[in-house]
Amino acid sequence: MFMGSPGDTTTPYVPTPRTTPTRARERVSYDRELVHSVLDAGYLCHLGFVRDGAPVVLPTLYARAGERLYVHGSTGSRPLRDAGRPEVRADGGMPVCVTVTHVDGLVLAKSAFHHSVNYRSVVVHGRAVQVTDHEERLLALDALVDNVVPGRAADSRPADARELAATAVLRVELAEVSVKVRTGGPKDEPEDLGLPHWSGVLPVAPVYGTPVPADDLAPGIPVPGYLTAR
Amino acid sequence: MFMGSPGDTTTPYVPTPRTTPTRARERVSYDRELVHSVLDAGYLCHLGFVRDGAPVVLPTLYARAGERLYVHGSTGSRPLRDAGRPEVRADGGMPVCVTVTHVDGLVLAKSAFHHSVNYRSVVVHGRAVQVTDHEERLLALDALVDNVVPGRAADSRPADARELAATAVLRVELAEVSVKVRTGGPKDEPEDLGLPHWSGVLPVAPVYGTPVPADDLAPGIPVPGYLTAR
User: Fold this and answer.
1) Domain range for residue B87?
2) Which of A158, A171, A160 is nearest to A127 (CA)?
3) B209–A213: do the CB atoms touch at under 8 Å?
4) Which InterPro entries does the protein's record reference (chains A, B) (predicted)?
């Protein structure tokens, strides 16, 4: 079962000390469907790992398939090389933290202190292991393309043997996971409500523009429907 | 000099082993003005640190002031507590990696392998120290509000003593810094150019919506110009 156990999405993730916040506890959830929906709404994660005792955080693409998260990269890139080292593999993988964040609005309160941001953020703790199974690698690479542009994997040339050999795929199981969500307006102190400052929320969302054809695109190839619908 | 030395912005940051990529070297730069411009274009960073030997990556707001980066949070939050521990202070601060990423476009190539993303990303390695100087704390907190909504710090009630006591501010010097930028269209293999797939770039950018007044906002307070201009 390559794509992770479908499981029971009504069963929440089990909190652990490191997925239990010390504050703003009302914003945290372990709800599986909510976690999945926040992950599926994005494609860029920030992957954290430790090198020489210091943290490293790099932006990279990801895709979810069931209870597995995939990232990929060149076999020459350092985190992917690190994860493939024999002692790391023997240790169950490279400790990572994968964080996905969507900003939904800027929250302006009467007081500077109560300014905030509306956001949805998933934090995944786990170990990244190199995927070696050929079938799983192919499924993961398709998922990585389709998670950025749904429908695109089938409308592009699949990787050939040389490209596959140059690509490393890492898998992180979704097990130690939490999601934080803030919604709604500012929470001002009652005594501030008479102040003359505007308060409220400025919504923000990513918006896609008009597709720009490549310089070397032959004439007559139309923009595909999965882009124009975006 | 609280806001960091203005320095000579034409002098690049000095590369170190961990700011030197093993691949895609043509995308990396240490140009100070470029680093500043990428940082100043955003307000959300992903802050990485190490706890119990494992990486943790949390989204948080930041602001740049000269060659200093500030983040803040509740004195009760774990990374901020960690950074304030005496042994960490004695050690020069908490090792952190602060990463800021803007996605500018989805790059669709003829081949799945050459799919990419246009982005700008800054990675800062350093040590986070708790800011204890009162003046610097006030300047940092104003910068944090103004970096999200320019002009807002002056149009809100400043933090009072209780709020200041509940807020920790961390500072990271901009010294070990790199920036990566990818722009332009897909880089397809010449032998793929005859394939029937569309290729090009789908631009993406954050777009701000119509400001939503707070439920408890008194009537007659207009939306400020610094929001409508956005």
Assistant:
1) 23-184
2) A171
3) no
4) Pyridox_Oxase-rel, Split_barrel_FMN-bd
Residue B13 lies in a domain: no
With tokens 């690698």, the residue in question is: A137
Q: Which of B128, B164, B159, B124 is nearest to B42 (CA)?
A: B124
Does pLDDT of B107 surpass 60?
yes
Q: Strands B176-182 and B167-173: what pairing?
A: unpaired
Give dist(CA B56, CA A99) in Å, integer: 9
pLDDT for the residue numbered B228: 86
Residue A185: both structure tokens together? 């307006």
- ipTM reported for the complex, 2 dp: 0.94
At position B97, the amino acid (one-letter code) is C
Judged by CB atoms closer than 8 Å, whether chains meet at B22 and A77 is answered as: yes
Specify if A199 maps to a domain: no
**Residue in B132, B121, B115 with CA at minimum distance from that of residue B99:** B121
Query: What parts of chain A have a pLDDT lower than 50?
Result: 1-4
Is B206 domain-assigned?
A: no
Contact B56, B101 (CB under 8 A): no
Give dist(CA A44, CA A62) in Å, integer: 6
